[in-house]
Amino acid sequence: MSLNIVVFIKPEAEFFREFGLKLSYLKEQTLLENGCDIFDFYKFENKYVLIERWENQAAIDAHMEEAYTKEFISQTKKHLEDTEVFRLENIQFAQ
Question: Of 2, 3, 31, 93, which one has the greatest count of Cβ atoms within 10 A?
C-alpha cells in the first residue's frame, strides 16, 4: 500500500521565491528515487503545498537520508514560519 503525504509549508515572505527554487531542485532529484511515485508542489496563498506518494516507509526513510534532502532541510529550516504535515490513509469500502 502506498503512503501519501501532503505538506503545507509557509516560508518567510522574503524567502518565498528562493524556497521555491530549492524545492524545484529537490523535486527533480527526488523523482529519480526508487519508491517515489509522486513528488510535486503547488502555490496556495502564501504557502507551498507538497504532494508526495511513496511505495512504502522504507522509500521515505531512504529519501530522508539522501544528501540533497538533508541539504534542502539545512538550507531552508531557519526560513520557515510554519509547516503542517499530513499522512493520508487510503480508504477502501466494500461494495
Answer: 3
- Spatial CA neighbour of 5 closest among 53, 45, 63, 71: 53
Task: Quickly tell me which residue has 503525504 as its cell.
Answer: 5
pLDDT tens digits, one per residue of 38-55: 999 999 999 999 999 999
Q: Which three cell numbers stand for residue 55?
A: 511505495
Contact, 7 vs 83, CB < 8 A?
yes
DSSP 3-state of 79: helix
Q: How many Å apart are CA 86 and CA 50, to the nearest integer?
A: 10
For the record, the C-alpha cell of 76 comes out as 531552508
Instruction: Of 35, 38, 69, 72, give the one whose Cα is nearest residue 52.
Output: 38
Whether the pTM exceeds 0.85: the reply is yes
